[in-house]
Amino acid sequence: MFRPKAWTLLRARPALRAAPLGRRCAHNLASFREASRLPERRLRGLLFPFSELEAHLAPGVRRGEFSLFQPSVGDIARAEQLFIPSPKHAIDYFTSAVRMDHVPGIQQPEVCFIGRSNVGKSSLIRALFSLVPGIEVRVSKTPGHTKKLNFYRVGKAFTAVDMPGYGYRAPKDFRDMVESYLEERTSLVRTFLLVDGSVGLQEVDQIAVEMCEELGLPYVIVLTKIDKGGRGALLRNLLQLQEVIHKHTGGCYPQPFLVSSTQFSGIYLLRSFIAHVTGNLDLETAGSRGKPERVS
Length: 296
Prior knowledge:
It comes from Synaphobranchus kaupii. Keywords: GTP-binding, Magnesium, Metal-binding, Nucleotide-binding. By secondary structure, this protein is an alpha/beta fold. It contains 10 helices and 7 strands. Strands 1-3-4-2-5-6-7 form a 7-stranded mixed beta sheet, sandwiched between helices. The radius of gyration is 18 Å and the shape is globular.
């Protein structure tokens, strides 16, 4: 059980303010088919954002751990099909819950997204599902104030869960709601812990890492908002994060994922990773560097 003092800290820190989130039209790069028309260098930057930072690393920095998951172009295209609705593959908001006895009894694989308030969870979910016309991504009227567990069903393939943000103005029952879900949800196959790439790992994020470790969760750290701030700051924040993953975690996937929900960088790669860990995508090349473990 995660210690109460740490949960208090998860609720205690102010967060950066964000612009209100409203319904938006699909991003012009939402489809990989559209993105594939871009020049090769630009396309690679969208598919694998780390490639644009790699040249700036010092010679002694470990590079391999930043690009362990390397799906092929075919893998990425096949993964995208999972995020496109059809008459037999409905994708939409399903339900919300504030307690475990309200959580839907869905048996398919589940992934959840958790992070500091205003880290960009809802924006990321919108980007992932931007090929779904009119999808209802539930956010509160005040940005960063999600108070419930919001469930999005992706056909019979998997379910995605948007968690309340920790830190400033987290729900009073945050501990009971979130800890109970993370500890008891047997269908949960991966937790995505979002960290603001423009400011780096904060104290409340470090506590969230500790929470995932103590609960024994398989989790992944995603750096959001990589288009904000300078490249130097992003690189410093990424290296700091990689050091924490390398030295202080056991259940964290070694590779942090970099995303920008506005520029669409890293979205195709993250779609592919989600499809893979939920058991819906077998990679074409078994020799793909650091192929993630299969989901049993």
